[in-house]
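Sequence design from tokenized structure. All designs in this work follow the same two-part layout: the structure record, then the generated sequence. An example of the structure record is given first.
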């Protein structure tokens, strides 16, 4: 990916690192956002501690990740059945992702040292779902968020680095 980016935008600087050790100086960012990457981390606790390190005092973090609920709890089995039946694009696919409960996300942020922690649920249809599934997901997600947020399939955890 970096090679492609360098070819396309040769005048921009690129930094390669990982989420458990961010290659930046302490107190160097006002905010950090992560969109659907957190569920794939091997050591999310280390990642959050390093995010806290690189945030300035009062800096904020927002992590949107896969949330655990009645639907997402069944996804690994659904992926497996779809693969055995040779059905393509049952969903996004199985990548050994972790689905977080609200309490789990809260505890990780708290243990990393964040304060003013807030947890929300949200949904958005994945563009690579099979056509009919995408259309159904797109139509029901706003209803779910407004009326039964527990069924929303993503979780947002946000927190602030102490001043």
């Amino acid at each position: 990916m970096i090679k492609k980016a360098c070819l396309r935008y040769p005048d921009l600087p690129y930094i390669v690192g990982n989420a458990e050790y961010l290659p930046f100086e302490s107190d160097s960012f006002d905010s950090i956002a992560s969109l659907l990457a957190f569920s794939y981390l091997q050591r999310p606790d280390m990642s959050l501690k390093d995010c806290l390190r690189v945030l300035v005092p009062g800096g904020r973090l927002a992590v949107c990740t896969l949330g655990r609920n009645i639907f997402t709890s069944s996804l690994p089995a659904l992926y497996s059945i779809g693969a055995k039946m040779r059905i393509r694009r049952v969903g996004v696919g199985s990548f050994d992702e972790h689905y977080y409960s609200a309490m789990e996300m809260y505890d990780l942020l708290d243990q990393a040292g964040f304060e003013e922690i807030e947890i929300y649920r949200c949904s958005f249809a994945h563009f690579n779902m099979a056509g009919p599934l995408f259309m159904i997901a797109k139509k029901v997600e706003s209803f779910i968020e407004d009326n039964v947020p527990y069924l929303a399939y993503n979780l947002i955890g946000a927190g602030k680095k102490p001043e």
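The chain has a mean pLDDT of 82. We note this feature because it recurs in several other targets discussed in the main text.
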